Amino acid sequence: MRTLESIDVQGKRVLLRVDFNVPLADGRDGRPLVADDTRIVAALKTIEELRARGARLVVVSHLGRPRGERDERLSMAPVVARLRELTDARVTLAPAVVGSAVKALCEELGAGELLVLENVRFEPGETRNDPAFARALADLAGVYVNDAFGSAHRAHASTEGVAHLLPSAAGRLLESEVRALSEIVEHPQPPLVAVLGGAKVADKIAVIDRFLQIADVLLIGGAMCFPFLAAQGHAVGDSLCSREDVAHARGVLAQARSLARLELPRDLVIGERFAADTEHRVLDGVEVPAGWLGLDIGPASAARYASEVERAGSTFWNGPMGAFELEPFAAGTRVVAEAIARAPGLTVVGGGDSAAALAQLGLQAEVDHLSTGGGATLEFLEGKRLPGIAALDGAGVPS
Fold first, then answer.
1. Which residues are catalytic?
2. pLDDT tens, 192-207?
């Protein structure tokens, strides 16, 4: 994979694909603002390095799912406002993604300045990886840098198509993602402990299969544990548990007998409904009564999981241990997150809810690598070749 060392950017316009698909909130004046700038901050290392090398940056990202039509609620304007606060660069918002007006603004860019294109998914050619649209993007710059790991699993015009039309390289964020995730699956320091939570077994079945092959221990939490418990014959009450997931769990349990050690909760925190003010109690065991649902792993299970993590040479965590957004059911996730923060070995945390939990606890800086990807992280760990990364393997025309 080509990296920034392989390209000359001095005085050149660089089309920089980033992942600024950030959550928005309503500001006091009713205008949307960035609610979580984690992904913007993560791209600053690449942005500042390119600026220091004299590049003129044409920044492209998607935001939400406008489905190929302009939607002012998904404009990049709030992202540009936050970017102006985070850098001393001159940052301008383009009126569109491509076109003559955008091209003119690109040509006026000075060294170290940024032009942020409007939401690239306003253009229907983006998700179709339309060659004509990829060419229109390529015409805005002389070099392409992809730093959008969170979108690397999409073969879109701005993540894959344009990489074949310009001298291309990975940015520092994408490079660090590939390095950290590769280390956890290819060269982990043993023992390797994988902590997997979340809602559905089906969503993570391929990741579970991968870690069954390479991990020493799999710790299962979140709603994902209930199909496993049901497959073992336990009652799960009204807990989230589909027949499809039970079938998947049964297959995983059969594999685990000859592969990694798979651990399930031995106690639970249950509630009568999914709400912070619901009646709730700690269940000594895993037989969930009818009319109740499991919403967190119990304190004994959390302590046992934390002990496994603290002895690990390498740890990967993806998915909360319970409904951590509801305080009565946050303890399992908190105990595991704090153990990961203390762990002496390599710690890699998948994005999404795991990242949100770390942010809520103020522990982001305590892990070795916090992935900015959701689906991209999982697909990389599954062993899939991501289009946005594959396009950078000896990518583009010679620089």
1. 39, 200, 352, 375
2. 999 999 888 988 899 9
